[in-house]
Design goal:
By secondary structure, the protein is α+β, with helices and mostly antiparallel strands. The chain has a single domain, classed as Aminopeptidase (3-Layer(aba) Sandwich). An eight-stranded mixed β-sheet has the order 1-2-3-4-5-6-8-7, with helices on both faces.
């Protein structure tokens, strides 16, 4: 998959992305609400299992002006064929620039118009205030709690009639 926005390129991962992935996945600040920071072998396995598999579970998010890997976006089927999960992890240097909002809006449009999904879900920890703020900007509605994570849903009502 390739999606371009004004400042970003969402693309499939490549082996060459491994060093930049280690930069952000190994950063304790970036991983604060996710998991303990990854070591090199964990990043390698994560890339193989989630980024290079077909279809991928995650996609590389590249900053267009620099060509640098800004982070990755989680985008894959979730509990049903007409629902996907959306999430993001951005390196520290790429946070606070509106990148997650920009790519999320592009993916929501893709989910509705191209994939014709009925729903997209987002999950986060209750204490992850930056993610909660972004989820609010996306007009996601609360959909419960799953495994200690707050679950939010964005529905595409016109697509629900085509089940």
């Amino acid at each position: 998959m390739r999606i371009k926005t004004g400042r970003l390129l969402l693309r499939n991962f490549e082996e060459k992305d491994l060093p930049q992935m280690l930069d952000y996945l190994g950063d304790p600040d970036v991983m604060q609400y996710i998991e303990p920071p990854f070591q090199q072998e964990q990043v390698r396995q994560f890339l193989q299992q989630c980024g290079l598999e077909q279809p991928p579970l995650i996609y590389a998010l590249e900053e267009s002006c620099s060509g640098n890997l800004a982070g990755h976006v989680i985008f894959h089927p979730f509990e049903g064929r007409r629902c996907y999960e959306l999430g993001w992890i951005l390196g520290k240097d790429f946070q606070g620039k509106g990148y997650a909002l920009e790519i999320s809006r592009a993916l929501l449009q893709y989910a509705s118009e191209t994939l014709r999904l009925a729903n997209v879900v987002l999950e986060t920890l209750p204490e992850n205030l930056p993610s909660l703020h972004l989820i609010q900007k996306l007009d996601a509605v609360p959909a419960g709690v799953k495994d200690g994570l707050l679950l939010f849903r964005i529905s595409f009502p016109l697509n629900e009639t085509h089940l």
